[in-house]
Amino acid sequence: MANKTVIKDFYGKIIGSLSDEGNKIVAKSFYGTILGHYDKKLNVTKDFYGKVLSVGDITSALVWQEYNEHPF
User: Fold this and answer.
1) CA-to-CA distance for 64 and 27, rounded, in angstroms?
2) How far is the C-alpha of 9 from the C-alpha of 39, rounded, in Å?
3) Where are the beta strands (DSSP E) in 1-72?
4) pLDDT digit string (tens) for 9-24?
5) CB 5: neighbour CB atoms within 10 A?
6) So what's the pLDDT on residue 8?
7) For 20, what's the count of Cα atoms within 13 Å in the CB-facing half-sphere?
8) Which of 3, 36, 42, 61 has the most other CB atoms within 10 Å of its CB?
């Protein structure tokens, strides 16, 4: 079972989640859309299309970026 962390804004509204699935951490929006993932073995974060965005884990930033671009 994946360990799931919910990300909330200042008002306590859920804006997305991070799921730890063994070798990767998957970032999902409020609607469940996969935004990208962090590969623990390679130490890189990739977007939905597989493009490397950063060295290190910035999955929470993907959730915040999606929220800022498309608030609900």
Assistant:
1) 10
2) 25
3) 3-8, 14-20, 24-29, 34-39, 44-47, 52-55
4) 999 999 999 999 999 9
5) 12
6) 97
7) 7
8) 36
